[in-house]
Amino acid sequence: MNRTDDVSPDLVERCQAGDVDAFEELYARHSGRIFSLAARMAGSPETGEDLLQEIFLQAYRKIGGFKGDAAVGTWLYRLALNHCLDFVRSRQAKMDKATGTIDDDRSAALPSRHESPVEKIDLERAVQQLPPGCREAFVLHDIEGYEHREIAKMLGIAEGTSKSQVFKARMKLRALLT
Amino acid sequence: MSPHPDGVTLSEFADDALPATAAADVRQHVTSCAECQALVQSLRDVRRAAARLPQLQPRPEVWTRVERAIRAEAAPRRATFRWSWLAAAAALLLAVLAGYTLADLRRQPAAAPSVAATSDDPAAAAQFVEAELRQAEDHYQKAFTKLQQSVNDGKGSLDPQTAATLEQNLAVVDQAISESRAALRAQPTSAPAQASLLESFKSKIALLEDTVALINEMRNGPSLKPKGT
User: Which of A70, A126, B69, B163 could disulfide-link A176, Cβ–Cβ 3.0 to 4.6 Å?
Assistant: First the structure.
């Protein structure tokens, strides 16, 4: 989870003083990473942009309390992750929807020939089509690099459920990509 | 050949996340099972491709939205601060007046001395006070109407939270006016009751004037440091 963060203390101080130019620079440096997380967790670039806006507005409100204990990029990412998780929980509560229709029948998703079809198609779009539940676990595990125990804590599910959701997502992606 | 491991176990095997003993068992099966071998390979392919997904970029207009939201955020923040101060001041004033009035009304007899009540004829004095207060109330009522009109015209400039706070505070002041009137009806010659009603009128005037000033300030826009300076 460690990423380079070359934001200077001066930039942070300017942000804390309400300098909009400095905040724009902070946004320019970190919006791609945060948007990637938000869009993938939400399963929609449009919702990802809405979340990105909310996250940076929240960052603007809270940056005055940033003490510099961690890199500002880490602080921003954590803020973004929490915001995305809140969004996911809220949506799950509203939808009360089944998390997936894929069963563990492996043969249905097995490729007829040994090949690597994921290289050929639009994985990004396929991730968007994953059912809520397994998409979040997949994004956090396979894209963001979190461990199952961390994901279980974040999403409020059992570790075994996280493993199962990631497996289901991978199987679904194979099916979507072939 | 041993039975097929379940999918989650194969997925964990593909991630090299199984404990050594379990991993050895699965490896033994996978080596001799083409179906599971293909599945493990494709699970690894998906994971590898996911890890290589490029970073996405939001559309440029998202920053415009963020910037607009930040600037809009700054104005209500100042307004809320200002309004909080006003509300606190009004509440303090009302609390002081209410305490003063109640304490004095309880302590003083109905014929407590006031300027008007020094008259030899108490009935005439009460009539005099009533007439004076009615005149004062007419004066304040005209001011209320004028200021309230300005507030109603400009209420759209206030954010909903501030507008709601305004309504609440006006309701508090109106309630204080009603209570002061009731106290005065009970003891028409009481100086504290008279003062309470007049102070309630002044409080309402002050609140309305401050609201109009706030609306004008909101219309003039936020005073955040301009971009590029």
Answer: A126
The domain of A83 spans 9-95
The domain boundary, picked from A62, A95, A128, lies at: A95
The answer, for A114 touching chain B at a CB cutoff of 8 Å, is yes
CB A84 within 8 A of CB A135: no
- Return the domain boundaries, chain B: 7-51, 79-220
Of B223, B75, B221, B215, the closest CA to residue B158 belongs to B215
pLDDT digits (tens, 9 = 90+) for B39-55: 999 999 999 999 999 99
| Cα end-to-end distance, chain B, whole Å | 75
Identify whether residues A73 and A33 lie together within a single domain: yes
**Per-residue confidence (pLDDT) for residue A145, from 0 to 100:** 95
CA distance B184 to B43: 84
Contacting residues of A for B38, CB less than 8 Å apart: 110-111, 114
A114 with A89, same domain? no
pTM (2 decimals)? 0.58
For A:33-72, CB contacts with B below 8 A are 33, 35-36, 39-40, 45, 48-49, 52-53, 56-57, 60-61
Q: How far apart are CA A162 and CA A134, in angstroms?
A: 8
From CA B158, how far away is CA B87, in angstroms rounded?
16
- Torsion-angle region of B53 (φ positive above 0: left; ψ -120 to 50: alpha; else: beta): beta
pLDDT of residue B61: 93
Does one domain contain both A113 and A133? Answer: yes
Which tokens in the block code for residue B149? 């009109």
ipTM: 0.81
A59 and A119 part of one domain: no
pLDDT in tens, A85-108: 999 988 877 765 444 444 444 443
Phi-psi label, residue B58: left if phi above 0, alpha if psi -120 to 50, beta otherwise = beta
